[in-house]
Amino acid sequence: MSETRATTDAASRPEPFHLHLPDEVLADLRQRLERTRYLPPTDVGRPAGLGGPRLKELVDSWLAFDWRAEEARLAGYEQFAATVRGHRIHFVRVRPARSAERVVPLLLLHGWPSAFTEYLPLADALAALAADDLAFDIVVPSLPGFVFSELPEGPLTRAAIAEDLHELMTVVLGFDRYGAFGGDIGGAAAGWLGALHPEAIVGLQLIHPPFPADDSPQDDREAAYLDALAEYDEEDGGYSAMMGTRPDTIAAALADSPAGLLAWIADKWDDWADGGLAAVEPADLFRVATLYWATGTIATSFRQYFDWSFNEPRAAVAAPTALLLSREPWLEGFPRSLAERAVTDLRSVEVAGAGGHFMALEEPERTAEAVRGFFAGLAD
């Protein structure tokens, strides 16, 4: 019996989801922000994180953020929730606004620290590019443990996320084949889709490359890149070490202090966006922070770090795959040979002209052109 048929009984029809945060939650958030205690200014001659006066500027801007206006804007998107493999998954659907000869169902997959809202600008840009020859039926899920989607039972591995996504697309929504675009956690889960269910995948386009199960260097270029990557991780990896070993300890603080939550998220946005926080609209950051705060899901967003050791080696990705590499320091000098050992049908490797970890948000129109170009060149 196939995986899809075996899990049909555990899936549900999608039900409309109406996003509305209670008044008391927003009032409590405001009160806590207004009572924030800030670190005194320090100058130790090297980066120490995001706090003090810079954090106060962000908190003051968050206090001015009009969530109800944002909520009204988000109400313009079709949102749903469905039971998938025994737990709830929330998603947005952006259907084609016009008929086309070819319609590709397309998953847009976010990472951390983010939410489904990161991919709505890209969904809009793709909808605007719809033409007689090609359009997309877009599904933007909240990944398990993020905002309105529940964690599954058992470890939250990349394979588990992939199976959730596959069931969502094939059983809940009834698509025979579909594509995916994304990065970070979502991109890694997409890689697992291409390994576990290649027959169902039209194509994958990833902003972060899959690595082969055996990523030991095969030549000098790979060795130099992997050494540089290890050095970067040593400098950047404090957040990851904490979330991977003692997630509940830091989550207890972040779940009680919205300013602390904002600092934890904004620190990584500043590191990973192409141009830092200046490259994104403040509202984009406050939208994500408000959703994490109101849903109390910062701790569950850490689970995929804490459960990392449960991930098994992934087989080679067999679906047609293109890499549109984000402009992040850790990808500088990435050797194509690593991707060639991870993907059996690698169509292209290119560095994006602009856009970092949050490329879909930072450069939606440019990214939409690249997505359309890739999928236009694939057969159904």
Automatic annotation (TrEMBL):
Instruction: Identify a single GO molecular function assigned to this protein.
Output: hydrolase activity
- Identification of the protein by name: Epoxide hydrolase
Q: Does the keyword Membrane apply?
A: no
**Record carries keyword Hydrolase:** yes
Which protein family is named in the record? Belongs to the peptidase S33 family.
Q: Which UniProt keywords apply?
A: Aromatic hydrocarbons catabolism, Hydrolase
Species, as recorded: Leifsonia virtsii
**Epoxide hydrolase N-terminal domain location:** 15-119
Q: Which domain of life is it from?
A: Bacteria
Q: Which InterPro entries match?
A: AB_hydrolase_fold (IPR029058), Epox_hydrolase-like (IPR000639), Epoxide_hydro_N (IPR010497), Epoxide_hydrolase (IPR016292)
